Amino acid sequence: MALRPLTSADAHDITAGCQDPETARWTTVPVPYDRAHAEEWVAQHAPTEEWWSNPTWAVTVVPSDRWSGSLDLRPDGEAGAEVGYLIAPWARGHGHAARALRLACSWAFTALGLQVVTWHAYAGNDASLRTARRAGFRVPDHVFRSYGAQRGERRDAWIGTLTPDDLAFGGRAHEARAAYVGPRLTRRELMVLSQLARGQSNRAIAAELGISENTVKNHVRSILQKLQSKSRAEAVVLGLRHGLVTLP
Ligand SMILES: CC(C)(COP(=O)(O)OP(=O)(O)OC[C@H]1O[C@@H](n2cnc3c(N)ncnc32)[C@H](O)[C@@H]1OP(=O)(O)O)[C@@H](O)C(=O)NCCC(=O)NCCS
Description:
Blueprint: E1 2-4, H1 11-18, H2 21-26, H3 35-45, E2 56-60, E3 69-75, E4 80-87, H4 96-111, E5 116-122, H5 126-135, E6 144-150, E7 153-162, H6 164-179, H7 187-197, H8 202-209, H9 213-226, H10 232-241
Parallel strand pairs: 4-5
Antiparallel strand pairs: 1-2, 2-3, 3-4, 5-7, 6-7
Bound molecules: coenzyme A (COA).
């Protein structure tokens, strides 16, 4: 994973990334999102003098230089900044957001002299919550009613903070993950496993996730293989043991 400045050549990938329904659901990107939005956004956030008032990066997955996500900091002028990020659907499932967060926050604590980075996500955005905690953010188990705003509506949110000390603590958590040698399921497989834990049939899972039954079968086959299980029930038990799934 690497961070680099945005360029106008990113507009195509940004358009594709921001048209993703999950991005629309959990961020404030315009809906519907078209190429003009991407071009305008790049023009606003490309590196100029203004860049420092809202440092913004493209997330790439080395060795590729392709735009695969965005991360930005909104400094409040009082040694704090709010962070925002997204990872494109094609690059999800590998923890890139947590690494990007740590890198950008580490830079902000030294280069900008920040004392705190704040984070919020709409309640229910579990992937973002796990990302923030993985990066070292302290996020209490509390839902702040109507804290977030999205396209003219208020939404409940989780709030977290990261200080330089938290970043040091998060670093250890990060190493622990790198040392974890258990099975690594993709995001989709985790969603299917979670449905298996609810005892759902392939047909019900397909309807719930908006995919075909054949795709569900492929995911289940891959899950059984990765967890070395002979049955769906055994996969759920092993998933619980590895902390990949919780019981409903
Ligand atoms: C949130 C987001 C940036 C995370 O991207 P990522 O780095 O690819 O994240 P991963 O898929 O590697 O998942 C990160 C963690 O969340 C978990 N996770 C992923 N999808 C999940 C889901 N649907 N439900 C529960 N947990 C999930 C992963 O298991 C992982 O947990 P771990 O760190 O404890 O192992 C990405 O999903 C995204 O762009 N979502 C849409 C936009 C968005 O929500 N932006 C943030 C707004 S606050």
